[in-house]
Every structure is written in structure tokens, then in C-alpha cells.
Backbone:
């Protein structure tokens, strides 16, 4: 294969899906995302890739060390690279502007692939359980209609559309399944679609996370689904954290930290490590006495029975969350002896997982860097805030919402094989 295959990422988030395709050798033309903090993360990531390709990664290192402001760092980067991240909400009013910007970035080239999935809240089972209207009428239910507009305009050979398991059962106010409507609309625009449920722990990711991955192909072919190759690395959670400095609640820094020597294989095979770029965002949030008491209960339950804590089983004085029907396991154990953890979710910023270290009993929330490793983001990936001041909440939200990078890479590798 000669030229790199080009792709457009819609509803890009912090770029987990995109990063997997970049690692597989695809070339991003543009990312479209409405969240401003995530767009800064994408700009910083695209800047890193561009600087690395130009042999100038030292500017990225200076930025992570705090020797350059974000403005000064971006000044070292091509304006086209920075402009390839389009901070817009996709809708009728914004489509002409977004199309114009993408057309300029393509500059006459063919777009080979579109990837991305609309925000999952409208389809998720949890989202429906929390919303009094069961998400019926929520505009996010219909964002796939705009996705089809991009297919109509750019006519890529393939597209990859990812979403949560709830998509399989979500229906509109008349009881019609959204998935069937999507498939019908994509077919009307010239694409056959096939889908599979992929569970991330089957592809080397050390957490349990199921996603519906729809692949569309232009034309009328069927039987084209690029089923990724499975990988069971046979490592536990401790191995992916073992080189990070031990912390207690409230300890750590957002800037570079010195990691310990690593003699394992998973971090290398999963392409997590980069010995030339500092590791950042290893900072645990402080915990109040109530959290610490809940952590102690949960850890004792895990150590004695290998059982998860049900939030509703806590003493009444410790149950302060109003919503007790969904997220009953809001305090999740990330234990060192687990083959994989529970899903790392966006609400970790508020609800918190906690980590059991084999040598010191770390009853604390996990750090953004630990969450990023569970999502298989490489250590050189930096998560931005709006202001440029590092913030755990922004980082956790972006990490939690992302597609695990390694899962995306497995999908991308297989797509290149069938191209």
C-alpha cells in the first residue's frame, strides 16, 4: 500500500479511537468535537505527532515540564495541524462551516475513512434510567443523521461508528429502534453496515468494557466485517501500574514524575511506554473521611470475599448520593491481582475507583495516569483543560469517555488488512 489512508474523526472526544488508527498508520485529516477541553487535548496530541515527525519532540518535552506555555508551545506547530481540530457542535447550522474547513484540509484529496460515534448518553441504559423522559426526544439520539451527511459529501470507502451497548435496545417515541433507523439511512446513502459487540478485555485492554462497533462499506458487499485479532496478555492490573510512584490520597503532581524500572512485556507490546517523554498526571485526589471509610469497607469486602461493594449496602449515614438505582457500584475496586478492572467511566471524576497496592494499602482514588493506562492511552498522551492549568476532572472525563486506544488499534490493523 502506497499512500497513507486518510480519515476524519467525528465526535472525536479526546481521541482514543483516532489514536488507535494513527498507530496503525492511518493519517488524520480533521477531528470534529464540541467539547473545548477535549479539543485542546486533540491539538496538543496532533502537535506532538507533528513535532515527532519533524524530529522536534523536544518542544513537547519542554511543554510538559512547564518550560513553555501552551501558547508558546502551539507557536512551534504548523497552523494547519492546529486548525485540523474543529471545535464545533455538529448540527444543521454548523455543517456548512465544518464542511468548508474539512474541504480546505483535504485540498482535493480523497477521504478514505470516517470514524467516530455520537455521545453515548442518549443511548446508554444508565442515561435512560436517570432521565425522566428515558432520553426520548433528546437531540443526541439523532446525531447519526448528521453522520450520514458526512458520508454523503465525502463518500469514503468505509466508516467505523462506535457506541454503547444500549444502542441495541434504544427506541424512539414510537417504539422504533434507533439502530434499525441508522442502518436504513446508511443504506439509502450507499453503505451496507455490519456490527459486532467487542469487549475490550479480549484485545489486551485490562478492563471490561463492551462497545457496539458498526462498520460500513460503500456499495452492496456483505460479509466484510474486519473482526479484530484477540489478544490475552495474561498480566494483572499490578503490572500496568508497577512502575508508577506509590501515592496516598492527595499526593502526586500533574507534572513529570520519575517512573521506576519496568521489566515486563505488556506496557511495551501495548505501546504504552515512551522512554523519551515524561510521564505526567499521576496525582490522586484528596479523600474526605467519608470516602476513606467507604474505601475501607470496600477493600475489606474485596480482600475477604473478592466481592464488589453495592452502594446500597452501605450504612445509611454513608449514602449521600440521591441516585441509588444506577451506578450501584460507583466505588469500584481496581485491585492489583485482577486480570482486568471494571470499566473506567467518565464519572470517575466524582465517584472514584480505588486501587489496592500489594505493598502499601492504597485506599485512594486512582490517578488520571492510572486511568489512562487502563484505557491504554500511551504515557506520552497529555489531557488538557480549557485554561491550560492541569485539572483532574477534565482529564478523568476525557479518559472515561474514550474508546480504549488498544481496541481501536486492533480494529484499525484489521481494516488495513481487508482494504
Residues:
Amino acid at each position: 500500500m502506497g499512500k497513507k489512508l486518510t480519515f476524519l474523526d467525528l465526535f472525536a472526544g479526546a481521541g482514543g479511537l483516532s489514536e488507535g488508527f494513527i498507530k496503525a498508520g492511518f493519517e488524520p485529516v480533521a477531528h470534529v468535537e464540541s467539547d473545548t477541553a477535549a479539543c485542546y487535548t486533540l491539538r496538543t496530541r496532533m502537535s506532538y505527532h507533528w513535532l515527532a515527525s519533524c524530529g522536534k519532540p523536544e518542544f513537547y518535552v519542554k511543554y510538559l515540564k512547564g518550560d513553555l506555555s501552551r501558547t508558546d508551545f502551539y507557536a512551534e506547530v504548523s497552523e494547519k495541524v492546529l486548525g485540523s481540530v474543529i471545535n464545533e457542535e455538529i448540527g444543521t447550522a454548523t455543517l456548512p462551516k465544518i464542511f468548508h474547513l474539512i474541504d480546505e484540509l483535504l485540498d482535493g484529496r480523497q477521504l478514505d475513512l470516517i470514524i467516530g460515534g455520537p455521545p453515548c448518553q442518549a443511548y446508554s441504559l444508565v442515561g435512560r434510567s436517570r432521565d425522566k423522559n428515558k432520553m426520548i426526544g433528546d437531540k443526541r439520539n439523532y446525531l447519526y443523521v448528521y453522520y450520514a451527511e458526512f458520508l454523503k459529501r465525502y463518500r469514503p470507502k468505509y466508516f467505523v461508528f462506535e457506541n454503547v451497548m444500549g444502542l441495541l435496545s434504544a427506541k424512539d417515541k414510537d417504539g422504533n429502534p434507533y439502530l434499525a433507523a441508522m442502518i436504513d439511512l446508511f443504506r439509502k446513502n450507499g453503505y451496507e453496515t455490519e456490527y459486532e459487540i467487542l469487549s475490550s478485555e479480549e484485545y489486551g485492554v485490562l478492563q471490561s468494557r463492551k462497545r457496539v462497533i458498526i462498520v460500513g462499506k460503500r456499495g452492496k458487499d456483505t460479509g466484510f466485517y474486519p473482526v479484530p485479532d484477540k489478544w490475552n496478555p495474561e498480566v494483572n492490573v499490578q503490572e500496568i501500574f508497577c512502575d508508577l510512584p506509590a501515592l496516598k490520597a492527595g499526593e502526586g503532581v500533574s507534572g513529570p514524575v520519575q517512573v521506576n524500572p519496568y521489566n515486563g512485556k505488556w506496557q511495551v507490546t501495548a505501546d504504552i511506554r515512551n522512554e523519551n517523554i515524561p510521564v505526567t498526571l499521576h496525582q490522586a485526589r484528596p479523600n474526605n473521611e467519608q470516602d476513606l471509610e467507604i474505601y475501607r469497607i470496600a477493600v475489606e469486602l474485596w480482600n475477604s470475599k473478592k466481592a464488589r461493594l453495592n452502594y446500597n449496602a452501605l450504612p445509611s449515614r454513608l449514602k449521600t448520593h440521591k441516585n441509588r438505582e444506577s451506578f450501584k457500584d460507583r466505588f469500584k475496586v481496581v485491585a492489583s491481582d485482577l486480570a482486568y478492572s471494571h470499566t473506567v467511566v467518565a464519572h470517575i471524576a466524582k465517584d472514584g475507583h480505588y486501587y489496592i497496592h500489594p505493598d502499601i494499602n492504597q485506599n485512594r482514588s486512582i490517578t488520571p495516569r492510572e486511568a489512562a493506562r487502563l484505557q491504554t492511552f500511551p504515557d506520552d498522551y497529555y489531557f488538557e483543560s480549557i485554561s491550560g492549568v492541569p485539572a483532574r476532572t477534565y482529564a478523568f472525563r476525557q479518559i472515561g469517555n474514550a474508546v480504549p486506544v488498544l481496541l481501536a488499534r486492533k480494529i484499525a490493523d484489521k481494516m488495513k488488512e481487508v482494504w
Remarks:
- The first strand starts at residue 6 and ends at 10.
- Residues 6-231+402-418 form a domain with the Rossmann fold fold (CATH 3.40.50.150).
- Residues 124-138 have pLDDT under 50 and may be disordered.
